[in-house]
């Protein structure tokens, strides 16, 4: 930030930077959740085809309940 900026200008810039970081983080979480949903759906299909519970398939892939 330029040295001649007022405290208000610095605060506005800091807020804009923080808001941009938050937006980026929310976007990344959204992408993660979409990918996770697809993965769980695929594991559900595998489980159905094998005739086992989805939890069994998740354990085979090393995925726990909290992942």
UniProtKB/TrEMBL annotation:
TM segment ranges:
none
Record-given protein name:
Swi5-domain-containing protein
Query: Which processes are annotated in GO (biological process)?
Result: meiotic DNA recombinase assembly involved in reciprocal meiotic recombination; meiotic joint molecule formation
Is the keyword DNA damage assigned to this protein? yes
| Family classification | Belongs to the SWI5/SAE3 family.
What UniProt keywords apply to this chain's record, in alphabetical order? DNA damage, DNA repair
A Pfam family matched by this chain, by name? Swi5
Q: From what organism does this protein derive?
A: Cercospora zeae-maydis SCOH1-5
Q: Keyword Protease: yes or no?
A: no
Taxonomically, which superkingdom?
Answer: Eukaryota
Task: Show the GO cellular component annotation of the record.
Answer: Swi5-Sfr1 complex; Swi5-Swi2 complex
């Amino acid at each position: 930030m330029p040295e001649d900026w007022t405290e208000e200008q610095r605060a506005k810039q800091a807020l804009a930077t923080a808001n941009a970081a938050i937006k980026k983080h929310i976007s990344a979480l959204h992408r993660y959740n979409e990918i996770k949903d697809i993965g769980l759906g695929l594991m559900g299909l595998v489980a159905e085809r094998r005739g086992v519970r989805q939890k069994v398939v998740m354990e085979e892939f090393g995925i726990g309940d909290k992942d």
